[in-house]
Amino acid sequence: MIISHRHKFVYVKTRKTASTSLEIALSKWCGPQDIITHILATDEKVRQGLGYPGPQNYVVPFGPGRSLKLVNHTPVTVARQVLGDVWPDYFTFTIERNPFDRAISQYYWERALSQRSSIEQVTLSRFLANSPVELLSNWHLYGRGSTVLVDFVGRYETLADDLQTISERIGLREGIDISAIRTKDRLRSDRRHYREVLQLDDRRLIEEVCHREVEEFGYSW
Predict the structure, then answer these.
(1) Beta bridge partners of 154
(2) How far is it, in rounded angstroms, from Cα 77 to Cα 147?
(3) Which residues contact 85 (CB under 8 A, 6 or more apart)?
(4) Is the pLDDT score of 128 beyond 50?
(5) What is the DSSP letter of 51?
(6) What is the pLDDT of residue 115?
(7) What's the rounded Cα separation, in Å, for the pair 98 and 100?
(8) CA–CA distance, 166 with 22 (Å, rounded to integer)
(9) What is residue 142's three-state secondary structure?
(10) Cα separation of 55 and 51, whole Å?
(11) How many domains does the chain have?
């Protein structure tokens, strides 16, 4: 997550949507008072190599005598509480992706993590069947009930155009470019279309778990 007081925007970070690359890119325009949450150490090296600000100001006041540590996938509802009365003055946005395709990318990311910790790998179907809703769906990060709580939801499938829209909305002098920022894009070995990869039970599970984003953004099998 990034909360920029300088440019008055909130970036709500979703999973498997080029989110880390975008977070790194947005860091370029952050000032010393802006909030930037942690990313993985390997990705942080990429950000440092570009000379952009890293994690800062992520422990924030949160009620009388309390504080809260913001993390990369902090929901928009928490960000709204952090900003309080000035929330309406900030442009809030996120990126979403076809949940069928996103589920496969999530699987390969979790496989990479399991290799690092020597945990036995599982099949895609087993992974999906045993994953919590919060891992397979991004909805809880930017929505509540049936309502989208951010001002703009860009699409992974039309990312270049939507990043241009975001750039214009937050008043950046140049467009947001993530083309040269590489983080986790080489983890997925199976590049076939999701209809060739997912089984019928996989499809049904994703349609059930991700029904809100399917309905809201018109994603289909």
Answers:
(1) 95
(2) 12
(3) none
(4) yes
(5) T
(6) 65
(7) 6
(8) 11
(9) helix
(10) 13
(11) 1
Token pair in block for residue 16: 């498997």
* Predicted confidence (pLDDT) per residue in 140-156, tens digit: 999 999 999 999 999 99
Where residue 61 sits, what CATH number does that domain have? Answer: 3.40.50
For the stretch 16-72, pLDDT in tens is 999 999 999 999 999 999 999 999 999 999 999 999 999 999 999 988 889 999 999
* Domain containing residue 203: 2-217
Joined tokens for residue 36:
């930037």
Contact 69, 59 (CB under 8 A): yes
Dist. CA 18–CA 188, nearest whole Å: 13
Return the closest-CA partner of residue 92 out of 108, 76, 105: 76
Q: Shortest CA distance to 213 belongs to which of 77, 74, 96, 75?
A: 96
Tokens (6 digits) for 202: 């996989």
| Amino acid symbol at 112 | A
- What are 207's two structure tokens? 């349609």
Integer-rounded Cα radius of gyration of the chain:
18
Q: Which residue has the tokens 């997912």?
A: 198
Hey, what are 159's tokens?
Answer: 């990312």
Q: Give the H or E element holding residue 164.
A: helix 159-170
Q: Which helix (H) or strand (E) holds 103?
A: helix 99-116
Tokens of 154: 């860009």
pTM: 0.94
